[in-house]
Amino acid sequence: MSSAWRVTQRHIVGIVIAGLGVGLCLSPEQGRTELCSLLRDHAGLTFPVERVDPVWTCRLQPIVQGHTTESKIGPIRAALSESIYHHLLDHPPFTAALIRRLNLGRYESESRGPGRFWGNDGDGTKGIVELVYEDPASRIYFLEGTHESRLLPHVTGKAVVFLRISVMRDASGNEATDSTLVAYTKLDNWFLAGVVSLLHPLVEKIVTSRLQRGVETVNRLGIAMRQDPQRVLSQAAKPPSLPEAQVAFLKDALSTDPDSDKVLPQNRSFP
């Protein structure tokens, strides 16, 4: 997926604080966590930020509070069941490989540890994505990366992305997922951030387009899975081989009767 797994995901990060004395004393970082907080409400959506690890809260707070741009995308519908959608979010390298093999995009992704991935959208934006928090309805991501283009050569920055997932039925009665993203981006370059009044439309357009294109690409992948599952499975089975467990999941999911899950209510969203 793009920005959502480039951003992607969305994913459990193990944080080690050097010099932690097994509770014998508080490090400066530990003491600072008591002063950090995140707002629950973002662009009309509420997130359980109180469940975020305090160390992560301190990393995210200056980005959210001192952001260069704020963007809201969605809701954008993806033609994917809840289980497949979550599986694709959880395995960005697998998702990126499927997208490339089906000629839906040029995304690349590599695992860099538990819940941590490197991503490249093939169009000038690349960096690290880490999953900070997840539950069935929400995910919070931290991103750090670069963007290069003719107008903005080598811009570096950080971002926090809040993702809300809702499950419902499309017009044909198939289970689908709606994604709404709220992104806060903070540029590293003080000069660029200082002239944000001039750059804001350009930076916001880049951020918005990357996030939106990512979710829309995942929707195109979902459509391909419904229209021609055998082609998707054939591409997944081609060398170089993809992780066996993930291919097996996909094969099982696509071989399931598409009407078997229609006992769900017409629309199901999470609080």
What's the story with the biggest beta sheet? Answer: 8 strands, antiparallel
* Overall pLDDT score: 80
**What Rg is obtained from the alpha carbons, in whole angstroms?**
19 Å
CATH superfamily: START domain
Please give the share of residues in helix.
25-40%
Number of domains: 1
Helix vs. strand class? alpha+beta
Q: How many strand units? A: 10
Question: pLDDT under 50 segments (min length 5)?
Answer: 1-31, 259-271
Shape: globular
CATH architecture title? 2-Layer Sandwich
Summarize the helix and strand pattern as letters: HHEEHEHHEEEEEEHHHHE
Name the CATH class.
Alpha Beta
What is the terminal separation in angstroms? 24 Å
Strand content: 25-35%
Give the helix tally. Answer: 9
According to CATH, the fold-level topology is: Alpha-D-Glucose-1,6-Bisphosphate, Chain A, domain 4
List the helices and strands and how they pair.
Elements: H1 3-6, H2 28-33, E1 41-42, E2 45-46, H3 54-65, E3 69-78, H4 82-90, H5 92-101, E4 108-111, E5 116-120, E6 125-134, E7 138-147, E8 155-169, E9 175-187, H6 190-194, H7 196-227, H8 229-237, H9 244-255, E10 267-268
Antiparallel strand pairs: 1-2, 3-9, 4-5, 5-6, 6-7, 7-8, 8-9, 8-10
Helix pairs in contact: 7-8, 8-9
Please tell me about this protein's structure.
The chain has 271 residues and is an alpha+beta fold. It has a single domain (3-16, 37-258), classed as Alpha-D-Glucose-1,6-Bisphosphate, Chain A, domain 4, CATH 3.30.530.20. 37% of the residues lie in helices and 27% in strands. Strands 3, 4, 5, 6, 7, 8, 9 and 10 form an eight-stranded antiparallel β-sheet that branches. The radius of gyration is 19 Å and the shape is globular. Mean pLDDT is 80; it is low at 1-31 and 259-271.
